[in-house]
UniProtKB/TrEMBL annotation, chain A:
Protein name (record): Na(+)/H(+) antiporter subunit F1
Regions crossing the membrane: 6-22, 34-54, 60-82
Membrane topology: Multi-pass membrane protein
Signal peptide start-end: none
UniProt-listed Pfam families: MrpF_PhaF
UniProtKB/TrEMBL annotation, chain B:
Primary localization class, coarse: membrane
Organism for this UniProt entry: Falsibacillus albus
InterPro entries in the cross-refs: CPA3_antiporter_subunitB (IPR050622), MnhB (IPR007182)
Cited PANTHER family: NA(+)/H(+) ANTIPORTER SUBUNIT B (PTHR33932), NA(+)_H(+) ANTIPORTER SUBUNIT B (PTHR33932:SF4)
Domain Na+/H+ antiporter MnhB subunit-related protein: start-end pairs: 7-131
Membrane topology reported for the UniProt record: Multi-pass membrane protein
Family the entry assigns: Belongs to the CPA3 antiporters (TC 2.A.63) subunit B family.
Regions that span the bilayer: 12-32, 38-58, 70-91, 111-133
Localization, UniProt: Cell membrane
Pfam families assigned to the protein according to its UniProt record, in alphabetical order: MnhB (PF04039)
Gene Ontology annotations for the cellular component aspect, listed alphabetically: plasma membrane
Name of this protein: Na(+)/H(+) antiporter subunit B
Length: 94, 140
């Protein structure tokens, strides 16, 4: 029973990732694409959690936190590039 | 135009410590669980990259006054030193040893010389990643 529920939710999360992929390809502006990629990263966390429940292992729990941190750093880097044109500044006080 | 990234800087002050703690946990659990020196070093440099994003190269250099090129050398010294240390005990190069020790506070812990080799990997990964990112970030 739980296995069936997990597989149905895995399909649902995958469909939402496909919808986000449409926004990445179609998105009129770059911020749309960045937000869609961030949401794909969060959905990837859900996919990994569901798969680790289906496989009945706790070996992927580090990957969940890792993907969350990487999605955050990547989105911050992209946002800073869109706002200032450079990602790492040499001296921000002048 | 001056920008004030107060939200990004406040979040970074909290999250950078969490990432470093997570990287240390991944590093020390590498013997029995997924993880190890490579991913631990990458996560630590990820925390430093987050500091670089929220602040600038000059501020981060004053927070963490480390020359990352020297860190590569220290890491390689750790790796080679662990390998060469086995030669003193008449065993082949890179032979590792472990034993159980009764540490205060931690109880019985098995200490392994592979951790020292992993420390070398950890330092080299931090050094190489930060050298690459800082060299690219500094060039105009």
């Amino acid at each position: 029973m739980l296995d069936l529920v997990l597989k149905i939710s895995l399909i649902a999360v995958t469909l939402s990732m496909l919808a986000l992929l449409y926004r990445v390809i179609k998105g009129p502006s770059t911020p749309d694409r960045v937000i869609a990629l961030d949401a794909i990263g969060i959905n990837l966390v859900a996919v990994i959690a569901l798969i680790s429940m289906i496989l009945k292992t706790s070996a992927f729990l580090e990957v969940i936190l890792l993907v969350g941190i990487l999605a955050f750093i990547g989105t911050v880097a992209f946002a800073k590039f869109l706002e200032k044109g450079e990602i790492i500044e040499r001296d921000r006080n002048h | 135009m001056k920008k004030n990234d107060v939200i990004l800087q406040t979040v970074t002050n909290v999250v950078a410590f969490m990432i470093i703690l997570f990287s240390l946990q991944v590093f020390f659990s590498g013997h029995y669980h997924p993880g190890g020196g490579f991913i631990g070093g990458l996560m630590t440099s990820g925390a430093i990259v987050l500091l670089l994003l929220a602040y600038d190269i000059k501020t981060v250099a004053s927070i963490i006054p480390i020359d990352y090129k020297i860190l590569i050398g220290i890491g390689l010294f750790f790796a080679v030193g662990t390998g060469a240390g086995s030669l003193f005990f008449n065993v082949p190069f890179l032979t590792h040893a472990f034993n159980h020790f009764d540490l205060p506070l931690l109880g019985e812990t098995s200490l392994h010389t592979a951790v020292l080799f992993d420390t070398g990997v950890y330092l080299v990964v931090i050094g190489v990643t930060m050298t690459i990112i800082q060299t690219i970030g500094e060039s105009e």
